[in-house]
User: Which sequence fits this backbone?
């Protein structure tokens, strides 16, 4: 007999977490595993932000604060997102909680939530927590794994409540252009009862001509959109756990505040002061990290080009590449045949000692996700090992 509630029993364990545990095990055995699974910047938090956290401790930011977050932080966020006043912003424990607040505030039992795949692992589990139904729409490499207006239109039913769109995307690195968003917005204008969560946590990390873009920029639907962002990825502050939702629809902001007030009170005050320093201080650190990722992106792509039969879409943002390795499916190593992305991830871990995340975790079994939030030396060695392991497969 289990004491667990149905809601908890339905939830899946994070696959990337499970992979991290396997890596830890191998490392304890003295095996030199290269980790390409990291979903976070490999940089340390910039010094001026760390100092602000220390100052906040010295200044006794040790008390409960306002549920929606410190006004000074919300004003700093508003200065970064001028379309939103401080009142329209609610600070949470990471973007993750901001998304979860919104999903729990919006989704009822039986409501449908449209999620283009490949997608970040947690959306669907949050929808399950709310009792909603996930409607996954499979995108393809032909459209850079972006949802098209036709696909969106076809997925909408009279039970559709929410669309979750992530750009720049984890795991594909795709970034929607303003034109692509315009086409989606044209569909959404016809459906004023559908709400949109725009997950923009990687907005500071875009490459080439790609710029952060959001469905919230379309005035006709701006009351239907909540933007999610945070300091984790842009400022290398994942452990500080500060994120937020910005939304013109005050009813939704209020609902999230009530929810958060009951189960959280407020995000850590010291971390809020650090986030404020991140947003109000020099943004050079953000640009430096972005440039480094851009160089690593060029490196990893050039190395992947040397591996036969791997195809990939050029990442336009974030720090992931999502190569299609399915042409190796059906091939063998010893008596083991690789038939899925899980098999491939396991094979690369066991034979190449490179850890990646199987695409199945994101709803695309043809691919694996490699994070290039790691140094160039690691990238070069990892890709050398992957190439060797793949060319060893027979079949
Ligand atoms: N959204 C996406 C697409 C992510 O990849 C992540 C973290 O990996 C988050 C949200 C959560 O970020 P945070 O650290 O702010 O909770």
Assistant:
């Amino acid at each position: 007999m289990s004491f667990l509630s149905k809601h908890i029993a339905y939830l899946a364990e994070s696959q990337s977490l499970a992979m991290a545990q396997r890596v830890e095990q191998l490392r304890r055995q003295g095996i030199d595993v290269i980790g390409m699974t990291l979903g976070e910047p490999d940089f340390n938090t910039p010094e001026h932000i760390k100092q602000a956290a220390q100052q906040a401790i010295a200044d006794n930011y040790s008390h409960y604060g306002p549920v929606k977050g410190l006004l000074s932080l919300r004003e700093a966020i508003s200065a970064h997102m001028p379309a939103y006043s401080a009142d329209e912003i609610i600070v949470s424990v990471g973007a993750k909680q901001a998304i979860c607040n919104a999903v729990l505030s919006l989704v009822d039992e039986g409501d449908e939530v449209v999620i283009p795949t490949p997608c970040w692992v947690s959306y669907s589990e949050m929808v399950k927590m709310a009792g909603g139904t996930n409607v996954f729409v499979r995108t393809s490499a032909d459209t850079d794994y972006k949802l098209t207006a036709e696909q969106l239109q076809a997925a909408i039913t009279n039970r559709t409540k929410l669309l979750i769109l992530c750009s720049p995307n984890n795991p594909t690195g795709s970034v929607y252009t303003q034109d692509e968003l315009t086409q989606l917005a044209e569909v959404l204008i016809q459906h004023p009862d559908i709400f949109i969560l725009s997950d923009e946590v990687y907005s500071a990390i875009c490459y080439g001509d790609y710029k952060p873009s959001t469905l919230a920029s379309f005035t006709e639907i701006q009351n239907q959109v909540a933007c999610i962002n945070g300091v984790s990825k842009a400022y290398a502050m994942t452990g500080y756990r500060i994120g937020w939702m910005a939304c013109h629809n005050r009813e939704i902001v209020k609902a999230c505040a009530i929810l958060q007030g009951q189960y959280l009170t407020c995000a850590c005050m010291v971390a809020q002061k650090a986030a404020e320093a991140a947003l109000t201080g020099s943004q050079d650190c953000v640009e430096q990290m972005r440039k480094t990722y851009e160089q690593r992106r060029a490196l990893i792509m050039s190395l992947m080009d040397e591996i036969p039969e791997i195809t990939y879409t050029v990442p336009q943002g974030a720090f992931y590449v999502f190569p299609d390795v399915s042409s190796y499916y059906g091939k063998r190593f010893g008596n083991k045949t690789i038939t899925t992305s899980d098999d491939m991830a396991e094979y690369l871990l066991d034979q190449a000692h490179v850890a990646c995340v199987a695409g199945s975790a994101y709803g695309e079994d043809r691919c694996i996700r490699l994070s290039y939030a790691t140094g160039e030396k690691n990238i070069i060695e990892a890709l050398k090992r992957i190439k060797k392991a793949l060319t060893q497969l027979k079949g």
